[in-house]
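User: Quick sanity check before I run a bigger batch. Here is a single chain. Can you write out its predicted 3D structure?
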Amino acid sequence: MDSKTCYKCDIEMPIESFNKNKTRKSGVSDWCKSCTKESKAKYYLENKSRVLMANNIYAKENKEEIKKTKKEWRNKNKSRILRKASIYYQNNKEKIKEYGKKYIEKNRGKLWRDLPENKEQISAKQSEYYENHKIIIKIYSSEYKKINRCKYNVLQQQRRSMIHKALSTLTKKQWEDVKQKFNNCCCYCGKELPLTQEHFIPLSKDGEYTVNNIIPSCQICNSSKNNKDFFKWFPKSRHYSKKREKFILDHLQYTNEYQQLALTL
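Assistant: Done. Predicted structure follows.
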């Protein structure tokens, strides 16, 4: 039997449009899925309190059985659950992150990971996991660095700033804007090379990790400058250019008075 007529809406439909029912000769219900769903919804609205009470009583009386059934279903449909969760996460990424931040902020100090008696356990588990997955973690870390080079550099610099207790506010977008302003070239030599985040005032001399102190530099120029003073190092550099010097200082909003003062120090 490929089709059947619904007893309620009197429409002939494919057999797939009916729920399975072993008590019927046809093996399916007399009503189609749409009519059954509509009927159940109507009954629920008319008898909401009665249905909820019956559900609560059933749940209390069959707690273990329900738990076992749910576990079996989850084990049987793992791939389906993961696929749905992945789709939901992709469509609601920002919403989930925002909710997570609010939840952590609201429950700071009360979370399982924040309790002193659990910190040793967490540390031991993390060490054990690292030892058992050392090679995989290294491969993943290496690939992540290659794919997210810009983001990784920002995180590394933020960590350095935290160690030096310096102000750290530079974002990934700000860094991209700064590179674009310098045409994705080194601010010192003007060459189109892989760029690093150069601290105009070094961290060791209380330089901040902010948009007003970070400029793009190639690795060679960055290493050459190191923690030297810009006003003493750059004029002696073989790549010195009055035009590039002015552009850097204008970008960092250094006034002429401050420039003159820095050169006399």
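Residues 168-264 form a domain with the DNA Binding (I), subunit A fold (CATH 1.10.30).

User: Great, the batch can go ahead then.
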